[in-house]
């Protein structure tokens, strides 16, 4: 706001979060049944948008079988003690971005 006594004007500042890009895509993982499978994806910047991991079409959440971590720009998924039923596509999505392995 600028106030000269008899006149006043006001303006506002609006910020948009710049679009992130995927700088390190998911890589295929081969492991043995009963071992952990680790997937990592790195973005160009930290983002406030919610990221989501999928096994096939099923969205994953952190629990005793899946560990989801975010450390700055690095997003990781650990599938604990995988079984043959865990074989398939793993994907990471944030905003309009996605990567699969």
TrEMBL record:
Domain (Ig-like): give its ranges: 18-101
- The record's principal subcellular location, in a coarse class, is cytoplasm
- Entry GO terms, CC: cytoplasm
Determine if Phosphoprotein is one of this entry's keywords: yes
The record ties this protein, via InterPro entries, to: Ig-like_dom (IPR007110), Ig-like_dom_sf (IPR036179), Ig-like_fold (IPR013783), Ig_I-set (IPR013098), Obscurin/Obscurin-like_Reg (IPR052385)
* PROSITE patterns in the record: IG_LIKE (PS50835)
Coiled-coil ranges per the record? none
Alphabetically ordered keywords of this record = Cytoplasm, Disulfide bond, Phosphoprotein
Q: Give a Pfam family name.
A: I-set
Q: Where in the cell is it found?
A: Cytoplasm
The record's annotation in Gene3D superfamilies points to: Immunoglobulins (2.60.40.10)
Which PANTHER family has this protein been placed in?
OBSCURIN, SI:DKEY-31G6.6
What is the protein name given in its UniProt record?
A: OBSCN protein
